[in-house]
Design goal:
The protein is mainly β. It has a single domain, classed as Immunoglobulin-like (Sandwich), CATH 2.60.40.1240. 0% of the residues lie in helices and 53% in strands. It has an eight-stranded antiparallel beta sheet, with no helix packed on it. A two-stranded antiparallel ribbon has the order 3-4. A two-stranded antiparallel ribbon has the order 6-9. A hairpin with a 2-residue loop joins β1 and β2. The radius of gyration is 14 Å and the shape is globular.
Length: 123
């Protein structure tokens, strides 16, 4: 999916009870989303995990886990120049029973002509 020259691709989605040494609380699980962002615009576009939002089928928004320095796959913040891409994971704490998630992304610098990219993640 693309908006205003920023492309978001989701490579994989996984539910797990453990993430970087943390154990999900009873009735909860971690949803790990592997994403790639690519810029096809000038100037450079700021990005980071704070630009991602996750909602379930009921419209509930779920908490993003704070990125861990111990997880080399975590998407960190930065700036993408035209033609650059970055890949990493964004993790969320969700109810184990939740499903039909939608991931939304908005660049950190709030590009004026940008509309949030929304990707349905399925169950």
């Amino acid at each position: 999916m693309e908006s205003a020259g920023i492309q978001l691709a989701v490579s994989s989605v996984a539910k797990t009870s453990m993430h970087v040494g943390s154990v999900a609380a009873p009735g909860r699980t971690f949803l790990i989303v592997d994403v790639t962002l690519e810029s096809r615009r000038q100037p450079a576009t700021a990005y980071g995990p704070s630009g991602f939002c996750l909602r379930d089928a009921d419209g509930a928004e779920h908490d993003r886990l704070i990125p861990s320095a111990d997880d080399q796959r975590t998407l960190n913040g930065g700036a993408l120049a035209m033609g650059e891409a970055v890949r990493g994971t964004v993790a969320f704490d969700v109810p184990a029973s939740a499903g039909r998630f939608v991931l939304a992304f908005q660049p950190d610098d709030r590009v004026s002509d940008y509309r949030s990219i929304r990707v349905a993640l399925g169950d």
